[in-house]
Write a structure and sequence with these properties.
The complex is a heterodimer of chains A (169) and B (565).
Chain A lengths: L4 H26 L28 E4 L5 E8 L2 E3 L6 E4 L3 E8 L4 E5 L5 E4 L5 E6 L4 E6 L12 E7 L10
Parallel strand pairs in A: 2-5, 4-10
Antiparallel strand pairs in A: 1-2, 2-3, 5-8, 6-7, 6-9, 9-10
Chain B lengths: L2 H4 L1 H32 L11 H36 L6 H23 L21 E2 L2 H31 L7 H33 L7 H12 L1 H21 L7 H14 L16 H13 L1 H21 L17 H24 L4 H4 L4 H30 L6 H27 L26 H31 L30 H24 L11 E2 L1
Parallel strand pairs in B: 1-2
Helix pairs in contact in B: 2-3, 2-4, 2-14, 2-16, 3-4, 3-5, 3-6, 3-8, 4-5, 5-6, 6-7, 6-8, 6-9, 6-17, 7-17, 8-11, 8-12, 8-14, 9-11, 9-17, 12-14, 12-15, 14-15, 14-16, 15-16
Classes of the chains: A alpha+beta (169), B mainly alpha (565).
C-alpha cells in the first residue's frame, strides 16, 4: 500500500498530537490532581437516600480533621440545602460535596467553576474541591428535570474560615 | 445514463426517504428558531409558547433533526451509493419499503406523542423528555415504541444492503468491493452494533416500564445504554458526509480522490472505534469508575486519527482538482475551485466548519477539562458544527447534485441554492462561536431561562464579550440559519414541482476512479466479518465490566418508578 510522503508526515503529526492530548489528561489526573467523579459515592435508595448508610441528612458537616462535608439532595425543583438557604462553606478548606437525587436526573454545577456533576437517582456523586477565594457561586441544575427545570437553582457562599459556623455536627 | 433512467425503483425509494427527511428538517428547523428566540429573550413574549412548552419544542427539535431527518436521509442516500457503485439493483426493493414503513410509523407515533406537549387534544400524553429520554422522567409508551420502530426500520433497510452485497459477491467472487459500497456496508456494521444499546434500553426496560409491567428501572444503566448508542450515532451522521466528501466532492472540484486504500482504512477505523467510547458522555456521572472513563477517553482520542486523515485527503483532492482546473500558487489555487457551484460550496464549507467542530470536540473528549463545559451551551455549540453543519449542510449540498439525477429535472432557483450554503456558514459562525463562549462562562444548555430573573448577567462572566452580546449572536445566527433552511426547501420543492426538461441534465453521476485504486491496498481491508468481530471484541472490553457492575446489584436497582413529565 503506497502512502504519499506528505500523508505519512501528516499521519505521524496527527498521532503525536493525539498522544499529546492523552498526555495532558494523564498530567491533569496525576500532576494537577483532577479526580473524576466516579463510583466512590456508592448507591442509595432513590426514594429515601438518607436511609442508606452512605448518605446523611442534607446539610453541612465538619469532620474530625477539620474538612467539610456537604450532603445535598436534588428534587424537582430544589437543592436541599442550597435553594431555600445558601450552602455556606469556608475558603481554603477541603470541601466534599455528596449529591444525589430524590426523583429524576438533575445536574449540579457551580457556574464558572469545575464543580460539575450529574445527579442520578440511586447514585451518590462525590466531588472534593477547595475554594481559594470567598464569594457566592450560583448552583445551576444543568440537566433537564421537568417543566420547572429553569427555576431550579441555588447558591454556595464561600466565607472566610473565621466566619464559618458549623450548622450541623 | 441518469440514475433515474437506470434505477427507477431505487430513485423512487430515495425520493420518498428524502421527502420525509426534508419535512422533518423543515419542522425541526422552525422549532430551532423558536427555541433560540425564546431562550435568548428576543420575542420571548411574542412567541406562542410558555417556558414549560419550551421543552416540548426542544424535544421535537432534537428528535426530528438528530434522529428522523438524519436516518431517513442516510437510508435513502445509501441506496444510491450502493446501487450506483455495485451497478446493480437492490436485492429486493420491498424489504427497503418495509423498513421505510416501520420508520415512518415510528416517526408519526413519536412526533404525535411529543406534540401532545402543547396540544393535549392529540392522542397519547406529554412526552417532552428530550431526545436523550433519561429515566425516570417518563414519556408516553408511544414515544418509546416510535423510537424502537425507527431503529428497527433502519435495520431492515440495512438488511437489504447486505443482501444486495451477497448477491453481488456471488457474481463477483474475486472483485474488490467498490468504494462507495464499502463505505455503506462498514457504516451499517457500526450502526447495527451501536443501536443494540438503545434497542435494549427501549425494548427491555423503557417500554415495559412505561406500560407499568415492571415497576422500576435503573437510571444509570438506562442512560449508559443510551450513550452506548449516543456516541456512535454521531458517526452514523458523519460517515455519509464522508461518503460525499470522499467520492462526490473531488469530482465537483474537478479532479478525483487521491487514495482509495486510505479511505477504506478510515472507514475500518470508524467501525472499530466508534462504539467503545460512549462513556465520554458520562465523564461526570457518578457510579462509573475512573478507569472505564479513561478507556473511553483513549479510544475517543484515537478516533481523531481517521478524521485527520480525512482532512488531508479531502483538502489534497480539492487541490488536485483546482490545479487541473488551472489553479496555481501556494494557496492561490483555492480561487480556482468552483465556488459558484452550490453543491461544491456546501460541501467545502461544511468540511471547514467540521474542522472547527473537531477541535471543540477534542475539548469535550478531554476528561478533566470537560468539567468546565459539561452540559453547558458549549455542547450544542459543538454539535451544531458537526451534525448541524458537517452532516446537514453536506446533505443539502448532496441534494443539489443528486436530486436532479433522482428526478430527471434540472435544479431550480440556482441563485437561491448558491446563496444558501454561504448564509448557513455565516449564521452558524455567529451562533456557534457565541454558544461556545457562553458555555465557557457556565451558561447551561437545555433550559428555557438561563439567566435568573433580576440577577442580570452577573452570574455568568464570559472571558470576552458579554452575555447580552452572546445572546444577540445566537438569535441572529439562528435567524440566518432558518432563512438558509427555507431557501433549501424552496429549491427542493421548486425542483420537485418543475417539469422534466428535455435534454441533458447539468449534472452527471459519473464518479472518476481514485488516483491510487483499491488494487494498491491489502485485500484484508475488505474482510467485513473480521472488522465486525474485532469491533464486537472492543465493545465487550470497554462495556463488559462497567455494565456488569451496574447490573450486579440487580437489573432494575437502584430502581426508580416512572415520573411523568
Amino acid at each position: 500500500m503506497e502512502i504519499h510522503r506528505f500523508e505519512k508526515l501528516w499521519l505521524v503529526a496527527a498521532l503525536l498530537l493525539i498522544v499529546a492530548f492523552i498526555g495532558t489528561i494523564v498530567y491533569g489526573a496525576l500532576g494537577a490532581g483532577v479526580a473524576m467523579v466516579d463510583d466512590s459515592g456508592g448507591t442509595v435508595d432513590p426514594d429515601d437516600p438518607t436511609a442508606s448508610d452512605n448518605f446523611r441528612e442534607p446539610g453541612v458537616y465538619t469532620t474530625d480533621d477539620g474538612d467539610v462535608e456537604v450532603y445535598v439532595i436534588a428534587r424537582q425543583y430544589l437543592f436541599s440545602p442550597g435553594s431555600t438557604e445558601p450552602i455556606q462553606v469556608p475558603a481554603n478548606t477541603e470541601v466534599t460535596f455528596y449529591v444525589t437525587s430524590g426523583d429524576v436526573t438533575h445536574g449540579f454545577n457551580l457556574a464558572g467553576t469545575n464543580v460539575n456533576t450529574m445527579v442520578i437517582p440511586g447514585q451518590v456523586a462525590e466531588i472534593t474541591v477547595e475554594f481559594d477565594e470567598t464569594g457566592d457561586h450560583h448552583i445551576v441544575c444543568h440537566e433537564y428535570c421537568g417543566v420547572g427545570h429553569h427555576d431550579m437553582r441555588g447558591t454556595v457562599d464561600v466565607v472566610p474560615q473565621s466566619q464559618f459556623e458549623v450548622s450541623d455536627e | 445514463m441518469t440514475y433515474i433512467d437506470e434505477f427507477p425503483t431505487e430513485a423512487k425509494i430515495i425520493r420518498w426517504h428524502w421527502g420525509v427527511a426534508f419535512a422533518a428538517l423543515g419542522i425541526g428547523g422552525l422549532f430551532g428558531l423558536i427555541q433560540a428566540l425564546f431562550r435568548t429573550g428576543y420575542f420571548r413574549d411574542a412567541l406562542p409558547i410558555t417556558a414549560a412548552e419550551y421543552y416540548t419544542v426542544l424535544t421535537a427539535h432534537g428528535v426530528l433533526l438528530a434522529l428522523v431527518f438524519t436516518t431517513f436521509f442516510i437510508c435513502g442516500m445509501f441506496v444510491w451509493a450502493l446501487t450506483r457503485s455495485f451497478d446493480r439493483e437492490l436485492h429486493d426493493a420491498r424489504i427497503v419499503w418495509a423498513g421505510f414503513a416501520s420508520m415512518l410509523l415510528g416517526t408519526v407515533l413519536a412526533t404525535v406523542a411529543i406534540l401532545n406537549g402543547f396540544a393535549p387534544g392529540l392522542p397519547f400524553s406529554d412526552s417532552s423528555v428530550l431526545y436523550t429520554f433519561y429515566s425516570p422522567l417518563k414519556a408516553h409508551p408511544a414515544f418509546y415504541i416510535g423510537a424502537a420502530l425507527l431503529i428497527v426500520g433502519s435495520w431492515v433497510v440495512g438488511a437489504d444492503y447486505f443482501l444486495t452485497f451477497r448477491e453481488w459477491r456471488a457474481d463477483n467472487p474475486d472483485s474488490r468491493i467498490p468504494l462507495q459500497a464499502f463505505m455503506v456496508l462498514t457504516t451499517w456494521i457500526m450502526w447495527y452494533l451501536a443501536t443494540l444499546g438503545v434497542a435494549v434500553e427501549v425494548v427491555f426496560f423503557l417500554i415495559p416500564w412505561s406500560f407499568g409491567w415492571i415497576e422500576t428501572v435503573d437510571p444509570l444503566l438506562t442512560r449508559s445504554l443510551f450513550w452506548f448508542f449516543g456516541h456512535p450515532v454521531v458517526y452514523f451522521w458523519l460517515l455519509p458526509g464522508y461518503v460525499a466528501w470522499y467520492t462526490i466532492l473531488p469530482k465537483l472540484a474537478g479532479g478525483r480522490l487521491l487514495s482509495d486504500p486510505l479511505a477504506r482504512v478510515v472507514f475500518v477505523l470508524f467501525v472499530l472505534l466508534s462504539t467503545p467510547v460512549g462513556f465520554h458522555h458520562q465523564y461526570v456521572d457518578p457510579g462509573i469508575s475512573e478507569g472505564f472513563k479513561a478507556i473511553a477517553m483513549t479510544n475517543t482520542m484515537m478516533l481523531l486519527l481517521p478524521s485527520f486523515l480525512t482532512a488531508f485527503t479531502v483538502v489534497a483532492s480539492m487541490e488536485y482538482g483546482a490545479r487541473r482546473r488551472g489553479g496555481k500558487g501556494f494557496l492561490k489555487w483555492l480561487r480556482s475551485l468552483p465556488w459558484g457551484d452550490p453543491a461544491f460550496a456546501g460541501m467545502a464549507l461544511a468540511g471547514l466548519m467540521f474542522a472547527a467542530g473537531g477541535f471543540s470536540g477534542m475539548i469535550n473528549a478531554g476528561m478533566n477539562i470537560n468539567y468546565l463545559i459539561h452540559n453547558t451551551i458549549w455542547v450544542p455549540g459543538h454539535f451544531h458544527l458537526t451534525v448541524g453543519t458537517a452532516f446537514a449542510l453536506t446533505a443539502m449540498a448532496t441534494t443539489y447534485w443528486l436530486y436532479p439525477q433522482l428526478t430527471g429535472k434540472q435544479l431550480q432557483h440556482r441563485t437561491l441554492a448558491l446563496i444558501q450554503p454561504y448564509l448557513w456558514f455565516i449564521g452558524m459562525t455567529l451562533m456557534s462561536n457565541a454558544m461556545h463562549r457562553g458555555g465557557l462562562a457556565g451558561i447551561p444548555r437545555r433550559t428555557a431561562e438561563p439567566i435568573p430573573d433580576g440577577a442580570g448577567a452577573a452570574v455568568f462572566d464570559p472571558v470576552f464579550g458579554t452575555v447580552s452580546e452572546i445572546q444577540l449572536q445566537i438569535a441572529v445566527g439562528a435567524t440566518l440559519l432558518t432563512t438558509s433552511l427555507a431557501l433549501f426547501l424552496i429549491v427542493v420543492t421548486g425542483t420537485w414541482l418543475s417539469r422534466p426538461r428535455a435534454g441533458a441534465l447539468r449534472v452527471n453521476g459519473d464518479i472518476p476512479d481514485a488516483l491510487s485504486g483499491p488494487e494498491d491496498s491489502p485485500r484484508v481491508l475488505d474482510n467485513l466479518t473480521l472488522w465486525a468481530a474485532i469491533a464486537v471484541l472492543l465493545v465487550a472490553i470497554a462495556y463488559g465490566f462497567p455494565l456488569w457492575s451496574m447490573v450486579a446489584d440487580g437489573l432494575l436497582s437502584p430502581g426508580s418508578a416512572p415520573i411523568p413529565v
